[in-house]
Write a structure and sequence with these properties.
Elements lengths: L4 H5 L3 E5 L4 E10 L11 E10 L4 H9 L5 H17 L6 E12 L11 H10 L4 E27 L2 E26 L4 E18 L2 H7 L3 H20 L2 E10 L6 H11 L3 H10 L6 H17 L3 H15 L3 H23 L2
Parallel strand pairs: 3-4, 3-5
Antiparallel strand pairs: 1-2, 2-8, 5-6, 6-7
């Protein structure tokens, strides 16, 4: 059975117009997860396991880094929330947030010893879940620097443009986050996945003075929350099939074959089946170049409709019979989509 992704996702399309004889169609499809989790894992309970075992460590750490007690805790909770929000877009999983905070965060940024299985069983039972996803490492820092530099600025003085060298005050913040996830499968008594990774981001502002630039700079709490949200999104895409938006270019103009522009207008109103019939009707009168365009357009239309095999056949025809070099790469893209669909079938299997 062919997995028709657009039917699953509701299928929204946006067409943008360009003056160079081509247009882009945007459509939504499912991207397979990076890893395959056991098929019996369907409902996940999410838990924050970032409380340090050594009491008072957060206060000590704050003395050296400027971190407020509980600052990372709030960001860790937001990470789980963002992870849950992204997971809700997947037809494969249901996620539930636990209000409990467990001990486990390591002073060395290494994953702690796994939770005891009775604890995992209890949490999964409380939330009617098949697996437990825990954040077990969460550590951040935020480093700020500032200074003054010379920059060139163009001014208009009585209609005459002049370039001057002026002082510019700047401030920069660099956030670093180390985060660790672990997935517990209580049925098989196994760790289904675990990963520790780091993320870095930088922000820069300018102002009328160094203090003004610093005032405009993002704060540590907000930066850490932002980084945690990115980490939650990234891990969701690792373990769950999720929708993504892709774009394809198709031809919309020809001086000799009016079917190209007519079919493009049909695509504008989401009549892709009609566009396919129109573009096919133009093939008998098309020269080599326009024939390649028509075949390419038909391939794109079939992909939009979720018929990847037909799309690939027409992309092949465009390249082999009409010499349309654009379709050589497009054929490879469609082949990757076929492989992705096979992975999706396995990941979506009951």
């Amino acid at each position: 059975m062919v997995l028709r992704i657009p039917q699953i996702l509701g299928f929204a399309i946006i067409v943008l117009f360009f003056s160079c004889g081509t247009r882009y169609v945007y459509f939504t499809t499912l991207r397979p997860a990076d890893i395959n989790l056991p098929p019996h894992l369907k409902t996940l309970v999410l838990v924050d396991r970032t409380e340090f075992d050594k009491q008072g460590w957060n206060i000590v750490e704050g003395i050296f880094t400027g971190e407020l007690p509980g600052e990372d805790r709030g960001a860790a909770q937001y990470t789980l929330q963002r992870f849950s929000e992204i997971m809700s877009l997947s037809p494969r999983y249901q996620s539930k947030l636990s209000s409990r905070v467990l001990k486990g965060n390591s002073l060395t940024n290494a994953l702690p010893e796994p939770l005891a299985w009775p604890i995992v069983d209890q949490l999964c039972m409380e939330h009617s879940a098949d697996a437990l996803v825990a954040i077990e490492v969460f550590d951040s820092d935020f480093i700020t620097t500032n200074g003054k530099r010379k920059v060139k600025k163009t001014i208009d003085e009585k209609g005459v443009k002049k370039e001057l060298e002026v002082d510019e005050y700047w401030a920069e913040g660099v956030a670093n986050l180390t985060i660790g996830f672990r997935i517990y499968d209580p049925k098989n008594r196994t760790i289904a996945d675990q990963q520790v990774f780091t993320k870095t981001n930088r922000w820069q502002t300018t102002g009328t003075s160094i203090q003004d630039a610093l005032n405009k700079l993002i704060g540590k709490a907000e930066a850490t929350r932002y980084m945690g949200g990115l980490a939650g999104e990234a891990y969701a895409y690792k373990i769950a099939p999720l929708p993504i938006r892709v774009s394809r270019v198709f031809f919309s103009k020809s001086s000799k074959v009016t079917q190209i522009s007519i079919g493009a207008r049909q695509g504008d109103v989401n009549d892709w089946e009609g566009a396919i019939r129109t573009w096919k009707s133009g093939l008998p009168i098309a020269n080599r170049k326009d024939g390649g365009k028509l075949c390419h357009n038909i391939a794109v239309a079939f992909e939009v409709l979720g018929e990847i095999d037909s799309a690939q056949a027409w992309a092949q025809k465009s390249f082999v019979e009409y010499g349309n070099k654009r379709c050589r790469q497009y054929y490879s893209i469609l082949q990757q989509r076929k492989w992705d669909e096979e992975r999706l079938k396995r990941q979506m299997a009951e």
